[in-house]
């Protein structure tokens, strides 16, 4: 029997959420062990946020530069794909986690490489790649931060077609001549933008009515228009029934409902995420393997006062920044309970409650144009029973936008709670729009009254002047 090694906290999963738990618990003076089966830094650092933005930044910068008089003529050629790939590889550390290991050493956390599984109450069993076995016992908390994996639907022929998921789409060193993308969410929209700019002929197949279905409808519409103008094909209301790959390196064919076929050189299935919980020992503590892990506002698993789940795995908000936010909340709660605090601040906007997950969730999509939003859409606010008014403004009519780029196209919307005269949500679509969303996040979280926002004067001439125009439109 392997003797258990004791720590105050054991963290299962070394992505951004797990790393932030380590950071917060170590800062509180707790001994912490981290278990990771792949690269410390997780999906975001190596196959999602970081490499995708490295691929997208040259595409967006070129697009914007082409709209600036005096500069447009200098940026008419194709992207230097090798330089783009080298830039991406730099930001992923060439898919090595040496820098993350240095950070772990600097905070005094102990890393266990290998597959970790819950082993009953307050215990985690780890099997290393070399076959060594360790039992880790947690005095105060075990935190599950194992994240998600891409879902590939079980279509006829899909296994032999070897489709890309987000991992291959962000790490490929070859530009496919023709790229078929199935899906309409952020991964589909961003990867369509990146690979179209790198030279692929992109076709996006969306089962629903449009791209970016979780945002205001105009966001997906503007992104779809821009992709179409760039040469991509965006088709909505279509479903894939089967997939065929012609040989190990041959073209791939998708069969649509009704029998129509489309051929490409690669196929990206951007069709959702599932929790990485199928083999982490949930059954040893009475939970169901493969399920999302339900948590309370403090990210603690109900009925298990020692067990927490942070990040994608709890299904509250599948975004890196929200996972890190949850880790800060849970880390503070773990530290407070370890110190014997008699009561925690778990009320709305309390120090130990992840209120932003449901009331002020921000997101930025790095398409061309960018789309960014926080809080509730108009439809969500109405479904929740709020008495609201949406105020829209053409971003292209803002002086700062016209100076930013000729022919600037975009749109902004705020959703106002008419009973309290505070913002419930805001959406911005346009070049550079991702930098507008944090001001809206502060307004939503702070529940800043419209009358007070009137005194938050935007600098001239910036795109942020849209705030003044939105408030003027609201006041009439």
Q: Could you describe the 3D structure shown?
A:
Disulfide bonds join 44-49. This is Mercuric reductase. Belongs to the class-I pyridine nucleotide-disulfide oxidoreductase family. With 476 residues, this protein is α/β, with parallel strands linked by helices. It has 3 domains: 5-41 and 97-149 and 275-356, FAD/NAD(P)-binding domain; 158-271, FAD/NAD(P)-binding domain, CATH 3.50.50.60; 369-475, 2-Layer Sandwich (Enolase-like, domain 1), CATH 3.30.390. The chain is 32% helix and 24% strand. It has helices spanning 16-27, 42-47, 49-65, 81-91, 98-107, 158-161, 166-171, 186-197, 217-229, 320-338, 356-359, 378-383, 399-404, 437-446, 450-453, 466-475, and strands at residues 5-12, 32-36, 110-113, 115-118, 123-127, 133-144, 148-150, 178-182, 201-206, 233-236, 240-245, 252-256, 261-264, 266-269, 273-275, 307-309, 362-365, 370-375, 388-394, 411-417, 422-430. The strands form 5 sheets. Strands 1, 2, 3, 4, 5, 6 and 16 form a 7-stranded mixed sheet that branches. The N and C termini lie far apart (75 Å). The model has no long low-confidence stretch (mean pLDDT 96).
Q: Layout of SSEs?
A:
Layout: E1 5-12, H1 16-27, E2 32-36, H2 42-47, H3 49-65, H4 81-91, H5 98-107, E3 110-113, E4 115-118, E5 123-127, E6 133-144, E7 148-150, H6 158-161, H7 166-171, E8 178-182, H8 186-197, E9 201-206, H9 217-229, E10 233-236, E11 240-245, E12 252-256, E13 261-264, E14 266-269, E15 273-275, E16 307-309, H10 320-338, H11 356-359, E17 362-365, E18 370-375, H12 378-383, E19 388-394, H13 399-404, E20 411-417, E21 422-430, H14 437-446, H15 450-453, H16 466-475
Parallel strand pairs: 1-2, 1-6, 2-3, 6-16, 8-9, 8-14, 9-10
Antiparallel strand pairs: 4-5, 5-6, 7-15, 11-12, 12-13, 17-18, 18-21, 19-20, 20-21
Helix pairs in contact: 1-10, 3-4, 3-8
